[in-house]
Structure formats: structure tokens, C-alpha cells
Design goal:
By secondary structure, the chain is of the alpha/beta class. A nine-stranded mixed β-sheet has the order 8-7-4-3-2-1-9-10-11. Helix 2 packs parallel to helix 3. It starts with a helix and ends in a 5-residue tail after the last helix.
Length: 272
């Protein structure tokens, strides 16, 4: 049986985001990596292959996003290449453009398709990014991604949302990414140091061909590293990233890691 996206995380796969392009057909107010310019829409396959080879010996969940991955001209070639690697699980995050232009992604249960279809919830409506229904519960590893904005809670108080209350809906915390909503609570410093050692979503930025430490800081700038075999191996062994100045004031929600990962991070000396 093909594992769910929740199960591969429990199995120790470390997630890495591939920002294939920051070009997007939408402009969500809480997104940190988008431009309405149509640029960098063809993935450099040599750079992709070198990056994938750098994950040798590690279990990795590669997440294709941007921007909007549905705009990538050679997306099918990218997906075919990634699927050649037995140590890599593949996820694709889209605002529904992938469902429109690349339906084969949804038909392959070995590809974890996560759809961020909702821009926001309002008192009287759900503002969607595409003209599609939510996914019903399924075994094809197609998931709804719902961000718990203030409007989400207000809408749920007054409307039935049972259509998304199942295992194929992923709920994501809202946070200080939004320009008009400030989250004042903060995770304990120990948790932020654990995150700094290997962020929930470290980024391979295909536009500048660099490793970025933090996806939240893609627009305003996070620490960057060259994409070399050595650096990728150090990243996967919790030896590349450190606790930065922007980590001190971070209000990003931090998931609890499996105990095995916590021990590995501490053994690597990444948390002081």
C-alpha cells in the first residue's frame, strides 16, 4: 500500500522545497515567493540532476512549487527525472493550475498532489483560486491544503465545512507572513533552534540556483549557500544551517519533529 503524505514524514523523509520559478498566475497576500512576471519557466535539467544526486543516501520528500509549478514548460520532464530516484518521494503544490494543465499528476498515487485552492474564507463565501471542487477523501494522495486564516474560523462558525473534514485535507497554521495579520505568540527558542538546523521547508531556489535557509524569508532574504554535493550532504546531515538573526523573532508555526530527528540534530551539534 502506498503511504500517505503524513506517513512518509513519520518514516523520516526530510522535506525540501524546489522553487522552480517564482512566476505565478495569482498573488496570494500571505505568499512569500511569487511574481506576476512570467520568467524562468523552463527548468535547467543539468542543475536539477546535480541537485538530486546531492541527496544520495538520504530519504527526501521533494516538493515542487514556486510560484506556480503548473506554469513550468518542461514540468513532465522534471517529474520523470525525479521519479528515477528510489530515495526520493515527490510532492507537487499548486493553486489548481496543475489540475487544469497536468492532470496526469493527480492520476499517479506515487505523486503527492497538494492543492492550495482557497485564497481565503469570508463570512458569506469561499474565495477560490480555481474553478474546482475540493477533493473528497481518496486513496490517490490528492490533498486539499487549507490555511487557517482568521476568515477560516469565522466561516466555520457559520457554515458546514464537513466536505473537507477528512484525511485528505491538510490544515496549515496562519502566521506572520500576512501583511495585515500579526501573530504575536512564538514557539519556544529550543523549537526555533531545531527548525534552524533543518527548516520545515529549506529551499532550492532554481532562479538563482542557490540553497536558501528559510522559505519564509525568500522575498526579504535568507542565508544562501551554493548548491554543491558537499553542501547538500551537509544540509541533510544537519550540518549546514544555523540559528540566524531572523530566527530570533520568527513567529512561524513549528511542527514537532519525530524524536529520531531531534536526536540526530542534537548529535550533529546543530542545537546549542
Amino acid at each position: 500500500m502506498i503511504p500517505s503524505i503524513q506517513q512518509i514524514r513519520e518514516q523520516g523523509y526530510l522535506g525540501v522545497d524546489f522553487y522552480l520559478s517564482k512566476s505565478c498566475n495569482k498573488s496570494c497576500h500571505y505568499c512569500t515567493a511569487w511574481t506576476l512576471e512570467m520568467r524562468n519557466l523552463h527548468v535547467d535539467m543539468e542543475f536539477l540532476t546535480n541537485t538530486l544526486n546531492g541527496f544520495d543516501g538520504h530519504k527526501v520528500n521533494v516538493n515542487l512549487l514556486g510560484g506556480e509549478p503548473g506554469l513550468i514548460k518542461n514540468l513532465k520532464e522534471v517529474i520523470t527525472k525525479i521519479k528515477e530516484y528510489d530515495n526520493i518521494k515527490l510532492s507537487v503544490l499548486s493553486n489548481s493550475l496543475v489540475r487544469k494543465f497536468h492532470p496526469y499528476v493527480l492520476e499517479d498515487p506515487n505523486i503527492y498532489y497538494v492543492e492550495h485552492l482557497v485564497l481565503d474564507f469570508h463570512e458569506d463565501k469561499i474565495e477560490k483560486l480555481g474553478n474546482f471542487p475540493f477533493f473528497a477523501e481518496n486513496d490517490m494522495n490528492n490533498y486539499n491544503l487549507v490555511i487557517k486564516t482568521p476568515g477560516y474560523f469565522a466561516h466555520r462558525d457559520n457554515h458546514d465545512l464537513s466536505e473537507i473534514d477528512h484525511k485528505n485535507t491538510l490544515l496549515k497554521e496562519f502566521n506572520s507572513r500576512s501583511p495585515d495579520w500579526i501573530e504575536t505568540s512564538q514557539a519556544p527558542e529550543f523549537d526555533r533552534r531545531m527548525c534552524a538546523a533543518f527548516p520545515k521547508v529549506p529551499v532550492i531556489d532554481f532562479e538563482i540556483q542557490k540553497i536558501r535557509h528559510c522559505s519564509k524569508k525568500v522575498i526579504k532574504g535568507s542565508k544562501q549557500f551554493d548548491v554543491t554535493y558537499e553542501n547538500l550532504q551537509k544540509m541533510m546531515n544537519f550540518e549546514l544551517f544555523g540559528f540566524e538573526k531572523y530566527c530570533i523573532g520568527c513567529t512561524e508555526y513549528i511542527d514537532k519533529r519525530p524524536q529520531e530527528q531531534i536526536l540526530r540534530i542534537m548529535e550533529a551539534g546543530a542545537v546549542l
